[in-house]
Design goal:
Radius of gyration: 21 Å
Number of strands: 19
Structural class: alpha/beta
Bound molecules: flavin-adenine dinucleotide
Number of helices: 10
GO molecular function: electron-transferring-flavoprotein dehydrogenase activity; flavin adenine dinucleotide binding
Pfam families: Pyr_redox_2 (PF07992)
Strand content: 15-25%
Protein name: Oxidoreductase family protein
Largest sheet: 5 strands, parallel
Helix content: 25-40%
Distance between the termini: 28 Å
Order of helices and strands: EHEEHHEHEEEEEHEHEHEEEEEHEEEHH
Shape: globular
Function: Putative FAD-dependent oxidoreductase.
Organism: Perilla frutescens var. hirtella
């Protein structure tokens, strides 16, 4: 169907997607031939978040995982900027754009700060790599999936480095069961990563220049390089003074109904980590949200009845944390596994090819940038 051609009643509905991350990119791509789609994102690219840790140790890995929005959104508009407010019919951006919508999708995930251009992001990975390479000792703060995966990447690619992982909880990977946490801990120890549990580092009162870090228990850790892998708050601060201010829960998440519309709103959807859906915040679930919301938007844009919309059912925990290039620890509904078997599912390609394919891109061959 050509842009501007009638879908129903003559005009294309205007769909504005705020946030070009895992969920926003997929929903924009899925709707681009069904409506007049505008994607608003502070970056000119979509980045596969779970590939970023590998990209820090091997910067060429980022060439497939940092993707221009225009490469998958061939029939939509991209506005590179931050949404700063919304009304019942428009989104306002930091650059002063006022973008009118018939349907709005909010997919702002978690707060993060990334360069605007793809080339700057690739340079950032290169700089991360140089810093890791030149450091003899590295301190990682945070023992969630990001800290554990990063420690494992460094331990595998740079086995000669002294890596210390400090985590304030009583075990690693608290979003998984204790069995998975124990297995990950054993694996890291077997790779000479020193793990310090129940300790924290006051990040506001430490300086990397001194190369000395004191933990909450008074232990001193010497490290040439500090990598912070602590959680980030939901990306909803910009909505606090908006028409959706009463739809934000105490955790900063948007309350959604079973069709993934913001509760009480007919034409505003929310998907991904920003939602209050009772499940762990995972990229593969954000993708599922995007597909359900896209389906529902197609029903609405086609003038279909609300009862024809699909309900989203929260999913059981299914998590795979990679441990370098071959191993992983996985928790499925009935079992926990570690080693090469779960590693075969995730660790070699980190689902980069799969994610590219889902966006309609070649999983391997790069376009000519
Ligand atoms: C290091 C790391 C490793 C991970 N590993 C895995 C894994 O192995 N498996 C897995 O399933 N999940 C993993 N996750 C979790 C997964 O990445 C998230 O669940 C997923 O990214 C959520 O998707 P989202 O679209 O909701 O948010 P995001 O992907 O975070 O996207 C949010 C987007 O919104 C944009 N944005 C924010 N504010 C604004 C604004 N005001 N205006 C416009 N745009 C805005 C951001 O720039 C970003 O592009 C990992 C996460 C990280 C950080």
């Amino acid at each position: 169907m050509e842009k501007g051609s009638p879908e129903l009643g003559g005009v294309w509905k205007r769909v504005v997607v705020v946030g070009g991350g895992v969920a926003g990119s997929l929903i924009a791509k899925s709707l681009q031939f069904h409506g007049d789609v505008t994607l608003i994102d502070p970056k000119e690219y979509f980045e596969i978040p779970w590939a970023s840790l590998r990209s820090m140790v091997e910067p060429t890995f980022a060439e497939r995982s940092v993707i221009y929005h225009k490469d998958y959104l061939t029939n939509g508009r991209v506005i590179v900027g931050k949404a700063i407010n919304i009304s019942n019919s428009q989104v306002l951006t930091s650059e002063g754009h006022q973008v009118t919508y018939d349907y709005l999708v909010i997919a702002t995930g978690h707060n993060g700060s990334f360069p605007k251009t793809r080339s700057d992001r690739l340079n950032e990975f290169q700089a991360d790599h140089e810093e890791i390479k030149s450091a003899d000792s590295i301190l990682i703060v945070g023992g969630g999936p990001t800290g554990v995966e990063l420690a494992a990447e460094i331990a595998v690619d740079f086995p000669e480095k002294k890596v210390t992982l400090v985590h304030e909880g009583s075990r690693l990977l608290e979003f998984m069961g204790p069995k998975a946490a124990d297995k990950a801990l054993e694996w890291l120890k077997s790779r000479r990563v020193e793990v310090k549990l129940r300790q924290s580092i006051d990040l506001n009162n430490c300086s990397e220049e001194s190369k000395t870090f004191v933990t909450s228990s008074g232990e001193t850790i010497r490290a040439d390089h500090l990598l912070v892998c602590t959680g980030k708050p939901p990306g909803s601060a910009w909505l606090r003074e908006s028409v959706l201010k009463d739809s934000i829960d105490s955790f900063g998440r948007l309350r959604v109904d079973e069709n993934l519309r913001v509760k009480g709103c007919k034409n505003i959807f929310a998907v991904g980590d920003i939602t209050d859906i009772k499940e762990i915040k995972q990229g593969y679930l954000a993708q599922k949200h995007a597909l359900v919301a896209a389906k529902n938007l197609k029903v609405m844009m086609g003038g279909g009845q609300e009862r024809k919309m699909t309900s989203y059912k929260p999913n059981f925990v299914k998590v795979i944390v990679s441990l370098g290039r071959h191993d992983a620890v996985a928790q499925f509904s009935l079992t926990t596994l570690i080693g090469l078997v779960p590693g075969l599912i995730k660790s070699k390609d980190l689902f980069v090819g799969k994610t590219r394919k889902q966006l309609g891109l070649d999983p391997r061959i790069l376009p000519h940038y």
